[in-house]
Each structure stands twice: as structure tokens, then as C-alpha cells.
Amino acid sequence: GVSAGQYLTGFLNDLFAHLHWNLVLPINATSAICAVVVTVYFWWENIKGIPESSGKALRIMYVTTVMVVVMIVWCLITVLVRGAHLPPFPTPSHLTFAPEALGWLRFSRLPYTVGLIGILIGLGHSVLAMSGEETLAQVYREVEHPKLPNLEKTGLVIFTYSLIFTAGVSFFAVMIIPDATRHQYFGNLISGLAMSFVGPYSLRLVFQGFVVLVGVLMLAGAVNTAIVGSNGVLNRVSEDGILPHWFRQPHHRYGTSYRMLNLVVGLQLDRKSTRLNSS
């Protein structure tokens, strides 16, 4: 949810600059507010009871695939026109870490002297970015028979997207976005990539808007997936008697497990308010 807000805020700031408006939205605070709005919206939709549907998710994937193809083609054209430099090899002299990235190793020189440790730290931070396989547990009921071959195909699709889209964007960002400005786009890397392509500024701004739309749809949908998944897990925990059955009391009008949803969304909003206060 916060990532969706960062994409939207970055695009709005670029749009304001293009229109010569003297207005700059604070990235962290605006992103946290967007996340709260998205979370409250999906909380209310789940309280009313929304049917699980793969149709909407499939349409989002169609739009996403179009965006990915256009982005990769434009990246290749940019590289051919401007040239590019590959990311440096992960030797100790090339590794830099923010203090919060090192954790308990921040007082040690090992990450700066042993390249393998630095690589492992980077891989550890990228695990969530490369995730997606756990989604199979949630879509299992909607997968057509035969289940196993179709699940294997789904896993291949997830792997392909992670390799081409997630990893590819990171490599292209290093190759295309100038080193001096790349840090400005750490929160919305694809938007920064779109604004660094060759071509008219207005065309790049339109494509950035398309990227933001796709990113917000996907990331906002992930908020709903988190609510639905957490609600399902906690309901099973309550069925086993670990949580009191009080949590499974149905809503008097909609018949949904609203107390469980209130618990899940309340914890999410607490985390987002902490982010907002820190901003």
C-alpha cells in the first residue's frame, strides 16, 4: 500500500513540475495516507463480502504485460541510442550499504571485506521482491483441473515475471538512470526508468502515468489479497480453538467475519500510522 502511494506521489510531483506548479508532495507522508485510504476501502469491501474473482486479476495482468513489453522495448531502444554501462561486479570496493540494511552487521567490517557476505545481504533484502509463489495457496481453489500441471504452469509464469520484470527493471535502472539521480527513484524505480528513456518529455510523462496506474492497481490489489489471506488463516486458527470463537461472530447484516477483519486491518493501519508519524 505504501509502495502504491510512492508511485502515485512521484508521478504527481513530476506532473506538477511539468505544469510549472510550485507544489511538491512529501513522499513518505503522502504514501502513508494513500495506503490508509486503500486499506480502509478494501476493509469495507471485505466487510460487505466481495466474491473472489480471478477475472479482475487476469485483466490487471493483461494490462501489466502490455506495460512490461513496452517498457522492455523502450529500454532496449534507449540502450541502443545512448549506450549503457553494466552494473559493476559485486566486489567489496563496489558495495555500499545503508546503516539499516546491515542489521546486526553494521558494527562489522565483514560486508565491506568479504564480497560474498555483501551479496548474501543483498539477496536477503530482495527475497520479498522476488516473491509470488505463496500466492498459489490462495488461488488453488480457482485453478482448473488437472491441478498439478496448471499449478506448475502458474509457477513458471511467476518465475518468468520475476526474472524479466523485477530483475530486469533493476538492471535497466542501473544501465539507464544516471547515477546522480537514481537515488531519487528508489521508492518508484519504474517511474524513474520511464522518465530516463529517449523521446519527448510529454510522451515519457504519459508512459509514466501508465506505469503508475498499473503499479497502483497491482499494489492496491495486494492489500486486498493480504486482508483476504489473513482473514482466512485466522479463521482456521479460530476453528482449531487457538483463538476464541468470538472472533468468528458473523456480521449482523453481511454475514462476514467482521471482527477478524477489524483485527487484521487494525494491525495494518497501526503499522501505516507508525510510518506516517515517522514521516
Tell me what the structure shows:
By secondary structure, the protein is an all-alpha fold. 69% of the residues lie in helices and 0% in strands. It has helices at residues 2-18, 27-48, 54-82, 99-102, 110-113, 115-126, 136-139, 147-176, 179-182, 189-194, 201-239, 258-278. Helix 2 packs antiparallel against helix 12 and helix 3 runs parallel beside helix 8 (147-176). The mean pLDDT is 80.
List the helices and strands and how they pair.
Layout: H1 2-18, H2 27-48, H3 54-82, H4 99-102, H5 110-113, H6 115-126, H7 136-139, H8 147-176, H9 179-182, H10 189-194, H11 201-239, H12 258-278
Major sheet attributes: none
SS summary, helix count? 12
Poorly predicted tracts of residues: none
Coarse morphology: globular
Question: Radius of gyration over alpha carbons?
Answer: 21 Å
Helix content: 55-70%
Would you count the extended β strands for me?
Answer: 0
Oligomer: single chain
Strand fraction? under 5%
Q: What is the helix/strand order? A: HHHHHHHHHHHH
Mean pLDDT: 80
Terminal residue distance: 16 Å
The structure class reads mainly alpha
Question: Could you name the key traits of this structure?
Answer:
279 residues, mainly alpha
